[in-house]
Known about the structure:
Low-confidence stretches: none
Shape: globular
Structural class: alpha/beta
Order of helices and strands: EHEHEHEHEHEHEHEHHHHHHEE
Helix content: 40-55%
Mean pLDDT: 93
Largest sheet: 8 strands, mixed
Radius of gyration: 23 Å
Strand content: 5-15%
Amino acid sequence: MDIGMVGLGRMGANMTQRLLNGGHRVVVSDLSADAVAASAASGAVGASSLQDLVSKLPPRRAIWMMVPSGAPVQSTIDLLVPLVQRGDVLIDGGNSNYHDSIRRGEQIALQGIEYVDCGTSGGIWGLTEGFCLMAGGSDDAIGFIEPALRTLAPPDGYAHVGPSGAGHFVKMVHNGIEYGMMASYGEGFELLAGSPFNIDLPKVSALWNHGSVVRSWLLELAERAFEADPRLERIEGYVQDSGEGRWMVEEALDQNVPLPIITLSLMRRFASRQPSSFSAKVQAALRNEFGGHAVKTADAAVR
Length: 303
């Protein structure tokens, strides 16, 4: 099928290439002319603007957006809507808040334009392994873009999970679970690293990937990381988040659903970014005040 791709970052460029490998005609646009040129060199049709992209796609159009959540998604939609026609389909494959996806779907539906929010997982490995796709939208819109979904996903790797908003809701929960799994692996390997047995972390991570109940793709990635750097000495323990974990915790509060593990894993990410925790300083000061316990200054232990 013919499809447009707006946004050629690590995900968008790889998705474009997988679509090209699957025989689709892909028209691409990006703020970076170099990114457009790189995809065009691989077989895509380059576009100099969104208007140019729309003009190079025959009706009925499908335009996939892989741009950062929030204002970039909204501005892209605002620019595209006057250019497309009734029945065309806009797909947001980024990590948007599902409330925004519901609102956007309702707004552009007034002009006869279809909206699909498609949670996309697979990272940089999606090009070779396929992307897991969680699509929200109408039956008609999902049916129209299904050839692209089949190409992008591995076997059984995509699903129509509900109306607009459902795709990003499922992806939000997916990422929250990921937070908890990553935190659990991190804690376990920290205990192994500090054990008195000088345990070989690459060997254990490889071992657990064969028959263990904790085996997973994340553990396979941990195995790769430990093989490259057995004690992760070249990595700073600073863990970023892209928003989905926060949204999931907020949703849990709204629905009165207890998520203690995922909530704590999000808090642990926040803590990883503090060069010196003020909360820990308060606790150390209190222990010193009530019990005379030693505290450390920046230079040495005192009192």
